[in-house]
Amino acid sequence: MSARHTGPVAATTPTFIGMPKFPALAREALGNTQQRRNLAFATQTIRGKRAAVVGEVGDWEALRLNGAAVKDEVLAHLDDYLIQLEDKLTAAGTTVHWARDAAEANRIVVELVRGKGVDEVVKVKSMATQEIELNEALEEAGIAAWETDLAELIVQLGNDRPSHILVPAIHRGRAEIRDIFRTRMAAAGRPAPETMTDEPAQLAEAARLHLREKFLRAKVGISGANFAIADTGTLVVLESEGNGRMCLTLPETLISVVGIEKVLPTWEDLGTFLQLLPRSSTGERMNPYTSIWTGPADGDGPQETHVVLVDNGRTHVLADPVGRQALRCIRCSACLNVCPVYERAGGHAYGSVYPGPIGAVLTPQLRGIDNPIDASLPYASSLCGACFEVCPVRIDIPRLLVNLRTQVVDAHRGRPSAEGLAMKSAAWMFAEPGRWASMQKGITASSKLLRGKRTLQHLPWPGSVWTDARNAPVPPRETFRQWWQRTHGESR
Amino acid sequence: MTRVALFATCFNDAMWPGTPIATVTLLERLGVEVDFPAAQTCCGQMFTNTGYADEAIPRVRSFVEVFGGYDAVVAPSGSCTGSVREQYADLARRSGDAGLSRAVAEVAPKVYELSEYLVDVLGVTDVGASFPHRVTYHPTCHSLRMLHVGDRPLRLLREVRGIDLVELPAATECCGFGGTFAMKNADVSVAMGSDKVRHIRDTGAEIVVAGDNSCLAHIGGLLGRQRAGVRTMHLAEVLASTAEASA
């Protein structure tokens, strides 16, 4: 079950290096009452919408099984499908670039943009470009990267980080958004209207006016892709606002940064995923805008199309026979929206662009477990299993979390720790029923010492971690084993 | 004659003996002769779920040795049953011992959580219990989403004489215990538990019932700290209660 660490891991980017572990970040986030309220309201709303539209599909389980099977087929023959994809993309007139890691991908994109002699690009919402921190790389090269998804715009103007895969500004309330627009829009282009209130329609109108001049001006658009179809050389982007469509059609040049696991074998396979993704993600039967393109079309839309295929740790994930199913992920966010840990801790506590349950398994697999934040992520779950239940491609997230916890412990074996010692002692005690029976004599003896106390309110460390907020039970005067022996006699 | 073993689970054995005692009482009342193989200790779930697979593998070996000869193994715990049925295969594979994998494949399907055994094997929902109290039921995550016990516990509870069973809002949401999660991420654990306890208190129940004493220790610990006037009780103890002898 242990992974062979074959593929290269993705670098932990400067944004996340040195971040505290999940428990510390979560503790801080738990005190942010506005965020708690926003997250509880938003995740519960979208959870309900998803449940309703999934419930009306009679063969949902068959769709899930098909989705998982298609992705597993891709992962089992990824090399073949990628070569086929490259051939078909090239045949359709798209230039294909290969990037081993984030740095290589960023270098390729920066060079392409520089080659066009422009100092700005418009961006379609994309997890892959966030993962490689493309905006930062472009900025360093003197190129402004304008996010055009409404929520990404809020995050970018607020000099903030996304906290959700689908709803990056889920942690923000509308009054905060109004303040961000009022104070920051002017520096980035057209200012917010003087009369703008925090009404959603007015906020959207301010964003529309602000973004429109960028759409009309930009010569280069940058996107990701939800799917890349190997047998046709087609890219697919699903979105809700139409801002993505603007970026995909108005600029002269379109550069798409695509993770190598995004391949689907055939055009027919897309049908399954167009049913799975919107229902799981926004809780809609279908998303409003689906853009599909196969290379440039003469005189219509971008006349130059590029695809950058990015590994950035994905082959490392692929090398783990248990963990590789994380690469089935289609970034729908259903697992975030049902996760009781995510709902309370929020996305920033996960120290990565991939928060929530999928982030807790994907990030440590992409980046490895050397950083404290990455090693803490597999433990950021109560293993309640709600994520697996809603995953449209049946990623067994609890099993993957346990698999990663095992890797974390294995990597730290030999180094002394209180936890390791406690586990070793417990293992020694349970190894012999006689030792366990003796231990129980100690338990009942301590009960007698406590003389009728019913609960314990203050234990010394590490028990204090429990009793800080919870009473602890008092040991019984007679254990079950002792009762059995008294009432049923020796058994075998 | 079928041979039925009680897997008490280490936590119940040492800390909550009332639950395995109630399980024995209940099964004997239903005419099942139950054995308690004394060589049993712990299923190893705490090791497995914290990442200590090497420490868990000897527990797997011991479990299949101790329980291998029985026709059915009954455990008053959803999560320990889940550990055996759903996690032992991965541990056996890691051990590299094909014999252990075969033994697990043979033993694991014979391990039942109490409500599964009562409803599916014995075919009863009315176990002759009487419990005149206002009760709400919390379905624990591993019984719900790992074992898929569904409404079996509720079907059993609905047949109990005198019970005033009230629905728990947001019942399927995790209480926040999560094994060592309760210690390693104590703040989030308590935040989750606070919401669970709020829902429990909203029902006006006197007792919250569940199939796992580990989750109940967390829930009860929070209720106790709040002086909520609500106590916790294992499903087995409710089902073992009769008009003559209440738990």
Automatic annotation (TrEMBL), chain A:
InterPro entries membership: 4Fe4S_Fe-S-bd (IPR017896), 4Fe4S_Fe_S_CS (IPR017900), FTHF_cligase-like_sf (IPR024185), Helical_ferredxn (IPR009051), LUD_dom (IPR003741), LutB/LldF (IPR004452), LutB_C (IPR024569), NagB/RpiA_transferase-like (IPR037171)
Residues annotated as domain LUD: 84-310
GO MF annotation list: 4 iron, 4 sulfur cluster binding; metal ion binding
Alphabetized Gene3D superfamilies for the sequence: Alpha-helical ferredoxin (1.10.1060.10), NagB/RpiA/CoA transferase-like (3.40.50.10420)
Species name: Metallococcus carri
PANTHER family referenced in this protein's UniProt entry, alphabetically: LACTATE UTILIZATION PROTEIN B
Entry's transmembrane regions: none
Pfam family, one: Fer4_8
Keywords assigned: 4Fe-4S, Electron transport, Iron, Iron-sulfur, Metal-binding, Repeat, Transport
Lactate utilization protein B C-terminal domain: residues covered: 407-486
Residues covered by the 4Fe-4S ferredoxin-type domain: 326-395
GO process annotations (BP): lactate metabolic process
Name of this chain's protein: Iron-sulfur cluster-binding protein
